[in-house]
Amino acid sequence: MDEEPDPADELHLARLAKSWAEAIVSDDPARIAQFMADEWVIVSASGIDPREKFLSLVASGALTHSAMDLRTDPRVRIHGDTALVTCRVTNTAHYRGERYDADEWTTDVFVRRQGRWLCVLSHITPAAPD
Question: Measured between alpha carbons, how far is 2 from 80 in angstroms, rounded to an integer?
């Protein structure tokens, strides 16, 4: 029989999602990287991009964020040492000087390693208009 998830872990992961959004807006690659496992990737309409590419775009200033707001409370589901965190997020980014406003559903897959939750995969899907 599976163990019941620890409510403290669920609360921690919900807070982690909010803290990561704040880190994204800081445009500080070192701060952002603290939430990611080395093998982290992001899956979007353009395909799969590795951690190194994302962080290098931030470091160069080619990718910046001026807003990252969680529109829903994070939905947290824990399965052993793996957790899924899903929520709706709006954000404003600038990529190579061009502004992008997005309304997306995000799912982040976290794994617990040495007592820390690290994200290994982020998946974004455009949200349907309300």
Answer: 8
